[in-house]
Hints:
There is one protein chain. The protein has two domains: 4-171, Rossmann fold (3-Layer(aba) Sandwich), CATH 3.40.50; 176-388, Dehydroquinate synthase-like, alpha domain (Up-down Bundle), CATH 1.20.1090. It has a six-stranded parallel β-sheet with strand order 1-8-5-4-2-3, with helices on both faces. The longest helix is centred in the middle third of the chain and has 23 residues, at 201-223. It is of the alpha/beta class. Mean pLDDT is 93; it is low at 382-389. Helix 10 packs across helix 11, helix 10 packs across helix 15 (343-353) and helix 12 (275-283) runs antiparallel to helix 14 (315-328). It has helices spanning 15-21, 34-38, 41-48, 66-77, 90-105, 109-113, 176-195, 201-223, 227-247, 251-263, 267-273, 275-283, 296-309, 315-328, 343-353, 356-359, 368-379; strands spanning 4-7, 26-31, 53-57, 83-88, 126-130, 142-147, 150-155, 163-166.
Amino acid sequence: xxxxxxTGKGSISNLGTILTSFNARNVFLVSGxxxxxxxxxxxxLAGILADHRVTFFSEFESNPRIEDLRRGIRLFGxxxxxxxxxxxxxxxxxxxxxxxxxxxxxxxxxxxxxxxPVKGVRGKPFVAVPTTAGSGSETxxxxxxxxxxxxxxxxxxxxxxxxxxxxxxxxxSMPAGVAASTGLDALCQGxxxxxxxxxxxxxxxxxxxAIQLVMANLGRSVNDPDERSRMAMARAAHLAGKAINITRxxxxxxVSYPLTSYFGIPHGHAAALTLSSFLAFNAHVxxxxxxxxxxxxxxxxxxxxxxxxxxxxxxxxxxxxxxxxIHAVGLSASLKELGVENKEQVDLIIKNGxxxxxxxxxxxxxxERALREILSGLIQFSPAAALRM
Length: 389
């Protein structure tokens, strides 16, 4: 599917024309809580949707749970809706994606994630409007779902929104903590996509620009936000989403999910915690543990390219730049400071973060021993352990 894109300052003004193009009168609107009003979206949409019938769904947790999803499906299925409109962060857009897809296909989410093959049909026309700058969910064909602390990826070509409206003005009210975590998510997606075994020339172009935009603008976007930095971060998130839509994510994202589910660390922050360690880990790829079919030399060259994109002379400096950025936006790079401080907790993370799909996307084979050393090093905030592997 060729997605329609409206990007840039004021692009939300196109929404009325978009609704008309789909002959949409009955709108199913999925939104965040306070962010819907705080972003300015509520006020803007009040005028655009004045002549439309609107059903709202907003009462769900920030990490989509299956119980909330089923409530959304029941509400959506109980009305004759013409279009799905999602306005919010990545979790809001993910929730809307899944409501639309599972309702159209009349299948239970838990049945689907068990691995049953589904040819699938396309749901109602779907417009995604992000109010944060990080997930890039508006341009991907997958969504995240949590069941009993475990994270699952729901992926299908018909999940991708038909239209993405990326208006950076809607991100101006993001609190510093949200801007920091979501911005780090975009950085992780860009870097992981770049080294992923599924990377292409096209995905690397998206990822390269996303990484450079984050490194140049995230600090300002968090600590002293202005239109220029927030516009740059909105573009970075959108590009990083395009990159992972081609490649998917890798080890740092796999490890991030139990950190979020069990320890309450926001997703982007959780993914960034191991990013510099995995950069070093992947740099030391060997013939006996390379997973990228393009070979060891290709992977090493790719990691060197990433160091250059990060404006670093070598891997050590690149790692330092990532860790310093985490601190610069007011977040900790120490697992101990975030509540992870003993072997039992590390075991829990390994048990629930060793996602086969994402681990196999990593260019170097990840073993439990290697992951344990990385996590143990981060408890003391000494990720240098990864350099010795």
